[in-house]
Amino acid sequence: MDTFWKRLRNRLTISFLPYVGYVVIKVLSWTMRFEEKGDVGTIASYDREGRPFISVFWHGHMLMMPVSSYRRNAKVMVSRHRDGELISRIIRLFGLGSFRGSTTRGALSAMRGGLKALADGYKVVLTPDGPKGPRHTVQLGVIELARQSGAPIIPVIFSATKKKVFSSWDRFIFPYPFSKGVFFYGSPFWVPREVGKEEREIMRRQLEAKMRQMTGKVEHYCETGVWEDDERA
After folding, report:
1. Residue 14: pLDDT band by 50, 70, 90 thresholds?
2. Domain 2-224, what architecture?
3. What is the pLDDT of residue 16?
4. Residue 98 is inside which H or E element, if any?
5. Helix count (H) and strand count (E) of the chain?
6. Domain-by-domain residue ranges, the chain?
């Protein structure tokens, strides 16, 4: 009997919560003001021309990504556990597709799914420190996906002027209504097909450092209102 009720609860959760998540994100997006920083021109041209790329952002920044200006024609890599199923159902309500795997577990199926999506002309979206960290650490799978596909990596950082930062491992950001949200788009990060194993590790560290630098810059802007410079990341 306990097993029955547990299964029923899980089914109700997986059926009901995605709609709650969708409504929360939509209501927040209606009340917030959004600003775009960084290499907006490049990502806009990729989006306009339908050119595939790999969009990466930290796990803790994911909540408002479904309302990014450049979410169209995208497939999101989601993990295999129940949280992944919830995320998959939420983003489906925003018109986004998904495929299963992660940069650590299920890496082979994730690679196949990512390569197929890019070959079919989709953007591929993933969290390089997901699904369970370490926080703000890029996994090598992202570099390998870019190397095999020939598609560039475009990092995206999000934050808000007023927000709740949870004490979870990813320091999940929940922006408050009527705050200003900031999307910061980095310049394309290319991984040549011929790079060796040691070079790939170097590039992994470079991408990680780039995303951390972008994160610091966005947080400084949200806290002070001062954008240090307008150079591309």
Report:
1. confident
2. 3-Layer(aba) Sandwich (3.40)
3. 87
4. strand 97-100
5. 6, 9
6. 2-224
